[in-house]
Specification:
By secondary structure, this protein is an alpha/beta fold. The chain is built from nine helices and eight strands. The strands form three sheets. The protein has a four-stranded mixed sheet, with helices on both faces. Helix 3 crosses helix 6.
Length: 226
Amino acid sequence: MIAHVAQRAGESGAAEVIVATDDERVLRAAASVGARAVMTRADHASGSDRVMEVAESCGWPDDHIVVNVQGDEPLIPPAVVDQVAGLLDRSLGVGAATLSEPLREAVDIGNGNIVKVVAARSGRALYFSRAPVPYARGGIPSSVTGPDTQWHRHIGIYAYRVAALRRFVALPVGRLEATESLEQLRFLENDIDIVVEEASAPVPGGVDTPADLERVRRAFDKGVAG
């Protein structure tokens, strides 16, 4: 899985791709496809902390943009890596950027494993939640068609400016973050803006369960993952 993620990130326009890990097995997986990998500390509380360690060790300046691609996203399209970096680059005064896509089925809207995001007209994130937000007082429809769905899945890819990331990792875990178990809420609780844009290409879900793993394996068997 790590090898596939590294390959897809490498197909983007990123100036450099680094696999950050605390596991020798991940180092070997990255090496199998010629990707650069670095060993980081084992005590990081989140992937953002691990990214910050790499940023510090590489001496990246405060305005440098770094994209965090999760290691469980083997089907992520390279185009969205470029998209989220470009979104942050043109969003002055914003610390981080991320992506979303519409949700169409009630079962997904109500699924606590699918994180929802609500954004302002400007694209600024208002809230992230495992709950079906916005709450539909009249009940969630069984399916949503057309362009006007109110529910959007948060895609777990982030672009950060190094200065904002440094501030983020220095902050304590917030109450909302702890309640929802969503680290992106730490940004919002501390008035650090996140800008959100709908993904330019469909992004299959990551691998969180054995069923997800089988779904991804079927995708590769069918040759639909590149």
